[in-house]
Structure formats: C-alpha cells, structure tokens
Design brief:
This protein is mostly helical. About 60% of the residues lie in helices and about 0% in strands.
Length: about 140
C-alpha cells in the first residue's frame, strides 16, 4: 500500500511546513506541470481547511490578518507590490494603518490567500499620517 504524501493538518508545524512546500511549488518551474498542479490544489485545500478550523479571522483587523498571512507565507512587502499591483508606498501605508484597503486590493488578497473577502472587508482604525500631524501642530495651519 502506498503511503500518502500529504495528510490532514494536525499541528502548526505541519501547517507551516505545508505553506513552505506550497510556496516552493508555486515558484518551481522544473516540476511536471500536471503533478505540480495536483499537489498545489491538495495543499491549498489542506491549508484552507486548517485555517477554517483554527483561525478566528473575525477577531483580527484586516491589517493584522494580512501581516499574519505574510508571515505564514514568508512574504515581504515587495512581494505584495507584485501580488496587488500597487506601489511600495501604498503597501507601506496599508501596513502602517495609514490607508484603508480598496475593493480591488481586498479582491486580490482574498483570491491570493484563498480567503473570503469578508476577512479583509471589516472596519478598523486608521492612524493619521505624519504630514497631517505636522500640519495640525503648525500654528499657521490652524488660522
């Protein structure tokens, strides 16, 4: 009898390992296309199932969720630039709570991370930008 290559995820270590394998498969151009697609589909299903059972996204604001997903998938800000098709400045503003998520960004995040749009489409507090603080503290601005 053949041993299964992948099993239902039962631990955070197994989840992290499967995320690493999935990322490797996504960027691996040398593997056979059909086998790669089958493995990616299976890993995605296993990861999604673990997420559904173990993560309560309703309690996390969208930026914290995004930062957590970036960590889980070993993504950096520059990776989000490519995934979302926006500038580094926009990514920085989003991650620093200075800019909200647009509908298009929410759609792309939802699609990339295989989560419902509702996970990213919740209200959260934005922080005023440094420019606004400087302008408001300038006496000439308050005339």
């Amino acid at each position: 009898m053949e041993t299964l290559k992948y099993k239902v995820i039962k631990s955070r270590d197994q989840y992290d390992n499967y995320c690493k394998i999935l990322d490797t498969l996504i960027f691996d151009e040398s593997s056979l296309e059909h086998q790669k697609e089958v493995e990616m589909e299976l890993l995605t299903l296993l990861i999604e199932q673990y997420d559904k059972e173990n993560n309560n996204f309703d309690e996390v604001d969208p930026v914290r969720l995004l930062k957590s997903l970036m960590g889980d998938h070993y993504l950096k800000s520059k990776d989000l630039v490519n995934i979302l098709g926006v500038s580094k400045g926009v990514i920085s503003d989003i991650l620093n709570y200075k800019k909200g998520l647009s509908k298009e960004v929410i759609r792309k995040l939802s699609s990339h991370f295989k989560l419902s749009q509702e996970a990213f489409n919740r209200p959260y507090e934005l922080r005023p930008s440094d420019n606004k603080k400087r302008l408001q503290s300038n006496p000439a601005y308050n005339v």
